[in-house]
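A brief tutorial aside. Many learners find it easier to grasp structure tokens once they have seen a single protein encoded end to end. The record that follows does exactly this for CDP-glycerol glycerophosphotransferase, TagB/SpsB family. Read the sequence first, then the structure, and try to relate runs of similar tokens to stretches of the chain.
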Amino acid sequence: MKKLISDVLNLILSSTKLFLAFLLKGLIREKPESYIIGSNYGTKRSDNAKALYNYIKSLGKEVYFIEDIPTGKNSLKRGSFKSFIYYFKASGVFYSHSFSDILPSMHKAGMIVKYLGGPKKVFIQHGVIFTKKINNYVKSLKNTVDYFVVSSKLEKKIVEQIGIPEEKLKLLGLPRHDLLPENIKKTEKIFVFLTWKEGSLYLSKLREILEVLKTTDYPVKLAVHNMVKGDLDIDEKYLTSDIGKEVREASILITDDSSVAWDFFYNGREVIFYKSEEEWYVDDEFLEYRKVNSQEELKDHLKKVIDNNLKIEVPMKLFEHRDSNNSERVFEVLNNNRENN
């Protein structure tokens, strides 16, 4: 009940700020061309948002990041009235998780956001929608997005079937993939990264995987979700907090249904999906081959991967673009000067 009351009060507060900023925007001196980026509800700069921010900044454009704790002159405090004013003065807005990345609580009032207008809004995602089913989450974005970035025709079809209008879907690719070298220097290392699951299932799966990997000669690194509390009962030599480093370096990923898999596929690295309980959006032979449902299957499949010298041919259908120009395409979608459908 307390949470419900808090959510309602936060929504009322943000809605009031939005209306006031809307009414006052004409009285405030016009700003030069500027852009606003938000991610992870203001808690951190996620990979896609950070990559796009750096790209826009490299063009000499004025760009601001929305953060709970501002980190410099190009950072706006999330929820501040100043950020609401800047929102209406912006030439465009990009966000990776929810419209709440930009304006707190306003993802729950999409019709108000739509009615008041403002800059064009681009949802740049923080992954790829392909495996894990997130229908309600995707539908919730409908009224707070003008353009919805996807990476392939398959993903576009999935998102359209969920309920996002086709005209909003743009085949542009993820900005963070621009940072992955085309010919990456693979380290013979296995990276384990699972999506968060409530209860003991998450840790039990990690331990099952680790038990198998201890029998290989490959170094193993394991990233534990920040929702995990208390004693992990896992040797610290296996743990890492630098997910970006492991994504760039490891030659094999073991996950359940994390879209980090697409970072590995992007430049031809192997992925094994361990015990994905949920149905996926597509029944694809390339992906199904990489599913295992037990420790024994994991052990056998890992041996096949290693015996094959980690060679993998990723189907073109998983990516529309593999040219390191995703950030450019995402930024230029606002100019409507090229065909992106």
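Self-check: The radius of gyration is 21 Å. If you spotted this yourself, you are ready for the next section.
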